[in-house]
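Retry 2 of 3 after timeout on previous attempt. Resubmitting structure tokens to design endpoint.
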């Protein structure tokens, strides 16, 4: 993660922690996904934020409940069927995750 992205991600995490609504990691996850031009898989999020996949998964559930994130499906993809993070209803795999983003290269200056 480049320096400006890291500053934004950490800053939104700190702001979320003081909100009383979202946790710090939830803010960091949302910020990371917001800046992406494509959805990220759980593995990518955990690696970028240097957190365990289980910790990221639990925090993603909260963001989905707040309707801040949604899962996407990659049609007929082994990635979707074998590596989906399983956050959907009734065992439905949700695949990669994304937030409304600014697009590539849109990190704050």
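Retry 2 succeeded. Sequence:
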């Amino acid at each position: 993660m480049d320096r400006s992205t890291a500053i934004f991600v950490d800053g939104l995490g700190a702001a979320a922690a003081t909100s009383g609504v979202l946790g710090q990691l939830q803010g960091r996850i949302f910020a990371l996904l917001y800046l992406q031009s494509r959805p990220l898989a759980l593995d990518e999020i955990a690696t970028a934020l240097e957190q365990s996949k289980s910790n990221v998964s639990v925090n993603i559930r909260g963001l989905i409940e707040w309707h801040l994130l949604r899962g996407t499906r990659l049609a007929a993809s082994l990635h979707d069927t074998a590596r989906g993070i399983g956050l959907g209803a009734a065992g439905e795999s949700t695949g990669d995750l994304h937030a409304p983003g600014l697009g590539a290269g849109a990190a704050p200056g």
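Attempt log closed. The CA atoms of residues 78 and 84 lie 9 Å apart.
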